[in-house]
């Protein structure tokens, strides 16, 4: 009897500093998805984070020569072979970073067809949050991926924030996005993506995925 292949979640982090808030956001999104994928099913879940800062020279060489070095090829194969993808970039000049764009320029425009993707970004101010809608969402639509409804933007002030009665804090948005990715990967209802989720909630009620999507607030 053949062992069931593990579910693979790959997060791409385009942060340039170390440590990086972009990497931190990628890790938290990946962990949220992993926890909800592991809940109630027997398949193993493998999580891999691709740090683009470590591949910057290889990316530039590939753009010039057309041949990916081994490390870059491994990263590209991981992205295209993932069951679910998380893509996180810092905001540069009101858009995604050049390193982020250069990496995804190397992905064949059919390789992500139908793949569920959570898009996310980090920045110093909330004013740049629309980068998710005017830059990242069109990029992955061009790559024919399925971009999930909840995107996550983390400004400096969001870290450690639990939100208030009118807005969700960063932890709740991360958990909701992770729940949507888990649902899309497995095709089953996953708790944790519902509208009223907070870090202090107990066990979440199971909400049909269609209702979860209908409950998502615009913006």
Automatic annotation (TrEMBL):
Its EC number is 1.5.1.-. Keywords: Flavoprotein, FMN, Oxidoreductase. Residues 8-159 form the NADPH-dependent FMN reductase-like domain. The keyword Flavoprotein applies. It comes from the Bacteria. One of its GO terms (molecular function) is oxidoreductase activity. InterPro entries: CE1759_FMN_reduct (IPR023932), Flavoprotein-like_sf (IPR029039), FMN_Rdtase-like_dom (IPR005025), NAD(P)H-dep_FMN_reductase (IPR051814). Pfam families: FMN_red. PANTHER family: FMN REDUCTASE (NADPH). This is FMN reductase. It comes from Streptomyces atroolivaceus.
